[in-house]
Amino acid sequence: MQQFPCPFCGLRDEREFHFAGEAGKPRPDTTQPISDADWAKYLFYCANAKGASHEVWVHTTCQEYFVMTRDTVTMAVLGTHALHEVPA
Amino acid sequence: MTHYSAFSVFRHALRGNKTWGRAWRDPEPKASYDVVIVGGGGHGLATAYYLAKEHGITNVAVIEKGWLGGGNTGRNTTIVRSNYMMPGNTMFYERSMKLWENLSQDLNYNVMISQRGQYNLCHSPGQMDAARRRGNVMRANGIDAELFDRAEVRRRLPYLDYTENARFPIHGAIYQSRAGTARHDAVAWGFARGADRRGVDILQQREVTGYLWEGGRIVGVQTNRGDIRAGKVGLCVAGHSGHLARMAGLRLPIETHSLQAFVTEPYKPLVDTVISFGAAHFYISQSDKGGLVLGGDLDMYNSYAQRGGLPIVEHTLASAKALMPSVSRLKLLRHWAGVMDMSMDGSPFIAKTPVDGLYLNGGWCYGGFKATPASGWCFAHTIARDAPHADNAEFTLNRFERGYQIDEKGMGPKPNAH
């Protein structure tokens, strides 16, 4: 099995992790009117990068969400950091 | 070009089979074509074939970065069926089924279509209700469907697990008798030969690296072996749809995921049909060579790698064992993965894009192979007439902002859940 590094628990078996979605995609302010196109862009459109991909994952055993950067071609993990941290 | 027939087999056999010509040419590209199709898999080749056959557009090139059918056309589990129930999907897949039924004759190439039937097993009363509803929608549209109870499934498929301690008890199944399998390589080769015979140029080992632009319109493609101009460019690149769309400045409602498939060692005739497990994502059939062909779920995270992860290997084989305990001693012979263009509602796109001169055929998720003939037929119609056919009218790119998703499984915008 591949191992993924949880920023809180260290290297763990990939079966303990769950892919949550694309990182860096803030939810639009829905207290204000929002156009159908902008809402669709948030909900449905994604970067789908070939190569380095920034993603939100959850480590199901510690229940912490974090950002993982992976290469989607080689499967190499390029880095992880907690959600509140800004990567160096 | 030889017309294949029993007589031609006999005639060539008398000459020691040394006189067969090649099935399609390997031409040097022209400077310009009316239509360039990117992607030499089943969908791209079918599009070129139907452009020539149905619309008389023969100044067409198909550009493939590897070899014909080397992508998902050669990586699927070869199942064809038309058991869809959402408006927009149902008649499209039924068109495909009807084209499959006559495809070998139409192409003069044996695609080995085998209408051995397909069972979708149900493991709860709720799944039986859903199957009954699906079957009623299919029958109302003139598509064959039958609902079987547990006793009938047991009579027909005695080798499944019907014991007291079966992990997922079988309540019944919905059955489509016209569904079955086809030989996937032959589908690509048959469409390639048919298109080539009508004048289409098939250009292999040529990767598209960008587009040629003129006044905001795409007028051709850049490749690693020179530029080719085109009146219209059509994308049929499956898992790389997002990648090629991005080169044109477009974002697509697609995530790319890898899906694995497996073949066991050859075994005596055991599974004479196609069976889909209803409790987990798993399906099984048996190839003509005897190998059991198994497929499972996505790896669940974005991937462009044509190989899969081990958790899904374990999951798929556990499903096989839960459904058919007798397979537990079989050895796996081969195992591979293809990259899927998973759309946000599980349904495809066959449409003009917002970029002038660029047309998209993609978002096929797990279900591209069965759609191959109708996909080519409808995409050719869309390119030739600049307007969709009624059967692909709902496969638009802007259906998400309009709120007209075609979500067959009712999962919402989670591509890995469809």
How would you describe this protein?
The complex is a heterodimer of chains A (88) and B (418). Chain A has 1 helix and 6 strands; from the N terminus they run βββαβββ. Chain A has one helix at residues 36-44; strands at residues 3-6, 10-13, 17-22, 52-59, 64-71, 77-82. The model of chain A has no long low-confidence stretch (mean pLDDT 93). Chain B is of the alpha/beta class and 418 residues long. In chain B, strands 1, 2, 8, 9, 10, 11, 17 and 18 form an 8-stranded mixed sheet that branches. Chain B has an 8-stranded mixed sheet with strand order 5-6-4-13-14-15-12-16. In chain B, α2 (42-55) packs parallel to α7 (184-197) and α3 (90-101) crosses α10 (368-385). The N and C termini of chain B lie far apart (43 Å). In chain B, 51% of the residues are buried. The model of chain B has no long low-confidence stretch (mean pLDDT 95). Classes of the chains: A mainly beta (88), B alpha/beta (418). The A-B interface holds A 1-2, 14-15, 18-19, 36-37, 39-41, 43-50, 53, 55, 57, 70, 72-75 and B 240, 242-243, 251-256, 300-305, 309-311, 344, 400-403, 413, 416.
